[in-house]
Design goal:
By secondary structure, this protein is an alpha/beta fold. It has 2 domains: 4-77 and 318-353, no CATH class; 86-310, Rossmann fold (3-Layer(aba) Sandwich), CATH 3.40.50. It is built from 12 helices and 13 strands. The N and C termini lie far apart (61 Å).
Length: 354
């Protein structure tokens, strides 16, 4: 649900011109100052050039910059939602639980496990239609990154921001991830009314290095409530070292107490058991699209449920106001003369007397 949006958001990239223009303006002002010094004493030259403007260059630049800002926003066409309707949708509730423990930085899957998993989640979101999706991240603890929604653009944005630094407690507590996913289902408005736990699926993406017990038992308990868990394993059986970063630069690899490099290996057996306990399926996440197609097929084959979503269905264009402001600042810029104004002269004389 969006209250404000831009119809042509790519025009906003034009705002990148502002710092460039500011830099060029400052360079020009410095160049003018240096040129003046080559002719003699600056204070004397200022007195000789009686019609030299004092602050008009800065004022004209500000007016031009404001005109550019409002014109760009006008071209992007800011739109505001003016009408809310209840839209009836039919789909499945999907909670994606993504492992963000440090072992997900292992590079046996290029560029690393976490980057590949995030790319997979983004591709999965692109394939959803009327299904609601939520994002849960977990390591030693689990956190809700985004509640159930059909706002796929926001879901992809949240996915891009996921890093291993979001969860301070290290580990891989899959049980906590499943528990939080179940709470996400129950907290939705539809579930408060119906109490139903059907038409729900949890997708767990992890290397399976579970450091906490209880994940299998938790999977069995949620299965009794009609929730399906699909597990996606990422990593290699041979394992890979876990990079250690300092100031975004790799400094070493994770080592044990005997200073040996620790290898992180995928635990497929446990992930297969979790999926099997909840009538779900296990997939090994690799470089091809077969896994995505298989998972989407599983989701689409589930029985759909009806739920209401309040969305803005009517948007009013606001571009004319911004273009008018941009034109106004251009007119003001045109009216500001390059020559020195008499009222500035009077102000300067008054300050000199003081």
């Amino acid at each position: 649900m969006e209250l404000i949006k831009f119809e042509h958001i790519y025009y906003l990239y034009g705002l990148i011109l502002l710092p460039i223009l500011l830099l060029l303006f400052l360079m020009m002002m410095q160049w003018r100052k240096n040129r003046m010094k080559t002719f003699g004493d600056v204070a004397l030259i200022k007195k000789l050039i009686s019609d030299r403007p004092i602050y008009k260059y800065q004022v004209k630049f500000i007016l031009q910059a404001l005109a550019l800002i409002f014109i760009i926003i006008g071209l992007a066409n800011l739109q505001m939602g003016s009408k809310i309707e209840k839209v009836q949708r039919k789909g499945v509730d999907v909670v994606v639980a993504l492992d963000v423990s440090k072992s997900m930085l292992a590079e046996d899957i290029k560029p690393n496990r976490l980057s590949r998993a995030k790319q997979y989640v983004s591709n999965l979101i692109d394939r959803l239609q009327n299904d609601r999706i939520a994002l849960v991240i977990f390591a030693g603890n689990a956190y809700l990154q985004m509640p159930l929604t059909v706002d796929y653009a926001s879901a992809k944005m949240y996915t891009k921001t996921i890093t291993t630094d979001l969860v301070p407690t290290q580990g891989t507590d899959i049980e906590a991830a499943i528990q939080l996913a179940m709470e996400s289902f129950k907290s939705s408005e539809d579930e408060k009314k119906s109490g139903s736990q059907k038409n729900k699926v949890i997708v767990i993406i992890t290397d399976g290095e579970n450091h906490e017990s209880g994940a299998l038992e938790k999977a069995k308990s949620v299965s009794k409530e009609g929730v399906i868990i699909h597990t996606l394993g990422i990593g290699s059986k041979e394992g890979a070292p876990i990079p250690v970063y300092r100031n975004n630069v790799q400094a070493n690899y994770k080592r044990d107490n005997e200073n040996n490099i620790v290898l992180s290996k995928i635990n497929e057996v446990m992930l297969q058991q979790i999926a099997s306990a909840s009538s779900g399926k296990y997939f090994h996440l690799s470089g091809n699209n077969d896994v995505l197609e298989s998972l989407v097929t599983e989701i689409e084959s589930m029985e759909k449920k009806d739920f209401e979503e309040r969305v803005f269905t009517d948007y009013q264009d606001q571009f004319q106001y911004f273009l008018a402001l941009g034109l106004l600042f251009l007119v003001l810029d045109f009216l500001v003369s390059e020559r020195r104004s008499k009222w500035l002269d009077r102000l300067n004389i008054f300050s000199e007397k003081k």
